[in-house]
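Sanity check record (used in CI):
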Amino acid sequence: MATFRPRGHPQVFFISLPIFQAVLLFISLPDQEYVPNMPIYHIVLFKLKPGVTPGQISEFVTVAKGMVGKVPGLRKLEANTPHISTAHRGQGFNMGIVAILDKGEDIKVYAEHPAHLEVQDIRMKICDDALAYDLEYSE
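Expected output for Stress-response A/B barrel domain-containing protein:
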């Protein structure tokens, strides 16, 4: 970040264009009232390794769904392949999960829970890549 100080003027900072655009985007977002403890959609997309068997996928789905009732704050979890009508737009991601958590603070609890770590171990064996996205929503 470059700076200069003209005579008699306070210090001025130049920021890069992407940061400036992000600031403008933040400023231009519509006002939304923040509601604490909103539920979370935890969305994860996976790229399966070549040669992964239906049995391995079934094991992953079973163990992942088995986290419900074990992980505090985890309400529900669904796992599946993409819908046939949009699978061609998946950019190589060929399986996904959607987990519903009670509130934002539950993301950390979920991520560190032993049941989730077991799912992570299976994921590492069958997936080349994963993309996670957490989204708050109001009920």
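The longest helix spans residues 114-126. If this sentence no longer matches the regenerated tokens, the check is flagged for review.
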